Amino acid sequence: MSCCPIGTDVAHAAAVLRDGKLVAFATETVYGLGANALDERAVAKVFEAKDRPRFDPLILHVPSMDCIDDLVTEFPDAARQLADCFWPGPLTLVLPKSETVPDLVTAGLGTVAIRIPDHPQALDLLQQAGVPVAAPSANPFGQVSPTTAAHVAEQLGERIDYILDGGPCRVGVESTVLQMAGDTPLLLRPGGLPAEDIEAIVGPVRIPDPAAHPSAQAQPAPGMLPRHYAPRTPLTITRGPPPDTKCCGLMSLGPIEETVAARFAAVEVLSAAGDLTEAAANFFAALRRLDAASVDRIFASPFPEAGLGRAINDRLSRAAEK
Ligand code: TXA
Ligand code: MG
């Protein structure tokens, strides 16, 4: 398979973006597949490269707060407080959109998702590009998200124009998506910024009930699809020890006893210290290794529902066989 060039030339990457082409770039969460958000033809290429349904809107990436005024009609005080505390960082704010933002970016919604990523190279790229950059995670739709340039090359290298290598992603799971367009903040996707940190600033956030929105299009965040982030190998979430594990893989938060490990063909320990932040950083790469290990099934136990554990559990439950 042929792959596009991979390098660290930020000026070149910015020129490619300005030219209406696709650049994958590192953020602190995962690699994004970027296009000039104000160029509808460039944005359409993102949907094509990923095979992403057009009803799933994209996040705009900007380098600073002063780039946002033009993109939204309102920036409520609570949203501004969160931006002051957590940007640059793994928080995406969904705000009422202005007419500047093409409907293709927001899938026709009246809101737009925006974030300032916390990665020096990404900020440099966004500055030099001089336009808001629409960027979903740089993986084919529904598959495991990339946390290194090599992951992007494997999955999308043939379909894009340049991969800007910014090293492995520090956070490892996507940003937390928070809608700030109504009365109460709505947590549309748990992610790299723990909900507890948000609540410490703006009080309780509401979590939408997926059962109240049975179809994908009717979801408050169209990307909250039940199956996502999926490896090729079936994945089962288990509380107890799985029955026959000889040809199976195991993903574990912390160290496990040797007698247990010996019962699996492959084991991934996400953090020797059992630390959820370290586990999140290793999660997608470990899932890829288990997927490549030719096992019949991957088992994982649920993670503690606190801090980054929520984001990992969210990804695991969507990766799991239904
Ligand atoms: O960390 C991240 O957020 C990464 C990096 C590259 O920034 N990006 C990312 O994008 O994860 P993506 O497209 O894989 O996920 C974006 C999520 C989707 O669930 C989408 O439905 C939701 O954000 N979203 C985008 N715009 C929205 C809007 N206007 N209203 C509600 N949800 C929105
Ligand atoms: Mg994604």
What do these coordinates show?
- This protein is an alpha/beta fold.
- It has two domains: 6-212, DHBP synthase; 235-319, Threonylcarbamoyl-AMP synthase, C-terminal domain (Rossmann fold), CATH 3.40.50.
- The protein is built from ten helices and 14 strands.
- It has helices at residues 10-18, 40-50, 77-86, 103-106, 120-129, 149-156, 195-202, 258-261, 276-292, 309-319, and strands spanning 6-7, 23-25, 32-36, 59-61, 91-96, 111-115, 133-134, 162-164, 176-179, 186-189, 235-237, 248-252, 266-269, 297-300.
- The strands form two sheets. It has a ten-stranded mixed sheet with strand order 1-8-2-3-7-4-6-5-9-10, sandwiched between helices. Strands 11-14-12-13 form a four-stranded parallel sheet, with helices on one face.
- The longest helix has 17 residues, at 276-292.
- The radius of gyration is 19 Å and the shape is globular.
- The chain starts with 5 loop residues before the first strand and ends with a helix.
- The model has no long low-confidence stretch (mean pLDDT 93).
- Magnesium ion is lined by residues 136-137, 145.
- Magnesium ion binds next to loops.
